[in-house]
Amino acid sequence: MKKSCVRLMVMGVFMFIAHKSYEQSSDSKLLNFGTWQTFSDPLSRTEYPEISGRLCNFRWKDLEIKPGEWYWNAFDSSLADKTRDSLPLIFMVYTEEDAPDWLYDNGVPKVTVKDVNTGDIVDYVPYYADPQYKFYFKRMITTVREHIEQLPDSVRKWIIGVQGCFGSTGDYIGYKGDVPNQFYLNYTDFFSLFKEFSTHYYNEYKNTNPKIYLLSNP
Q: What strands, in cross-sheet order, belong to the sheet with 11-13?
């Protein structure tokens, strides 16, 4: 496969961190505009010198395998691999269908999502407005931040951003199809949840040192 094709498959374009203060920072790691790698194993900086940084994606269900029981091996290994050559990194933790199944055994309603055209079931997701879901989701955000702060300095110092994920991607929170009426959330409901969860993310990371900025994609 040609080198240019590999680039297209495994590299994503980094847009920008949605926080104005990074523009005033003297930290050169925050000024790595350009092409950032996402997915796949880390590409060699020697072979691909245009790489300016990396993105790293995780699933909540892979981290908190039982309530309060965390599995960090793959998480730590991935972060170490992607920062070994001293490139900055932004990470995210997916929820929605990537939320742990044990949520539904602990009081969180399981929402059936159907295709708007065929009526076929396409997904099962947590009910985002449920108080129990909010508790577990916010606890996950806090616990991940606490763990990040305990990483070796050789890894920790290169982590410059976290993207607030409220679904299966870093996009705005929502359902991807039709849901039962009792779980329906309108625009105002979703906006309120977006503000609540974004505020929790921001408050968790605002005092990190070295600074980890919140990336938002509303």
A: 11-13, 35-37, 51-59, 89-94, 159-163, 213-215
Separation CA 135–CA 34 (nearest Å): 37
Q: What is the pLDDT of residue 17?
A: 36
- Axis-axis angle for helices 187-205, 131-149 (nearest 10): 30
- Across-strand partners of 11? 37
Q: What is the pLDDT of residues 107-124, one digit of tens each?
A: 999 999 999 999 999 999
- pTM of the full structure: 0.85
What are the angstrom distances between the C-alpha of 158 and each of 35, 127, 189, 195, 217? Answer: 16, 34, 36, 27, 22
The pLDDT score that the predictor gives to residue 34 is: 80
At 172, the pLDDT band (50, 70, 90 cuts) reads confident
Q: Dihedral, CA atoms, 96, 108, 149, 88, nearest 10 degrees? A: 0
Q: Quote the CA–CA distance of 64 and 30 in Å, as a whole number.
A: 30
Q: Which residues pair with 178 in a beta bridge?
A: 114
Q: Which helix (H) or strand (E) holds 69?
A: strand 69-70
Q: ∠ CA 80-81-86 to the nearest 5 degrees? A: 80
Amino acid at 80: A
Q: Which of 77, 87, 13 is nearest to 43 (CA)?
A: 87
Neighbours of 152 (CB within 10 A): 11
